[in-house]
Amino acid sequence: MSAFPVVSLVVAALFFLMAFRAFRSGSALDYVLGAVQCIGVLLLFTVYHEFACYLLLLTAFVYLLSQVLTGARRISRLLPVVGAATILFDLITAMEFGA
Q1: In this predicted model, what pLDDT tens digit does every residue of 5-21 receive, in sequence order?
Q2: CB 83 within 8 A of CB 18
């Protein structure tokens, strides 16, 4: 688990929002991305926390790439960047405090 459980809740909220936006877009690749993000969020609260963080970090990168390639507004690209930054903070604090 995370050293700060609040950070895990923030990560979960951000990635559920990204998954919701991916499901709304309607393409098959976005459905897969949204499903993987939901699985990652569920794994976030289990003993596979570190694996879930890396999985969500990968999906944030793919989501950002999808946003750039489809020409989304710049403000829409902020969501995966904030999600990735929050995961990195979670991973750093977990290493620092040995959680």
Answers
A1: 888 899 999 999 999 98
A2: yes
